[in-house]
Amino acid sequence: MHSTKQKVSDAAAVAKEHVDILKAKAEEKAEKAMARTKEEKEIAYERRKAKEAEAKMKMHETKAQNAEEKLHGKHHGIYGHHEPVGAAAPPLGAVAPTYPLGGQHTGWKDPK
């Protein structure tokens, strides 16, 4: 189920990237039509390239998030991990130390 969801989400991210690239190309075309100098046309071209790169970056970020959701699951317990049903929450505040302090002493001493 997670694989299917990830594939659909990735496909949506790729489709959004293509739409953003097409928008950037249309904007570049409009800017070039209004441009009077060669430098203005070059600026329009550079803006398009920057927008395309941004669209690709967003697509890759979305794919990474989808992969992370697949790996870790979207819904976590209160403390960031899956908890078994009926699991007790850790106590809040000060916790009494476990004994024995300073290591594991059994009380048995070697008679030698």
TrEMBL record:
InterPro entries hit by this protein: LEA_1
Q: Which residues form a coiled coil?
A: 23-70
Supply the alphabetized keyword list: Coiled coil
Stated family: Belongs to the LEA type 1 family.
Q: What is the protein name for this chain?
A: Late embryogenesis abundant protein
Print the organism lineage.
Answer: Eukaryota, Viridiplantae, Streptophyta, Embryophyta, Tracheophyta
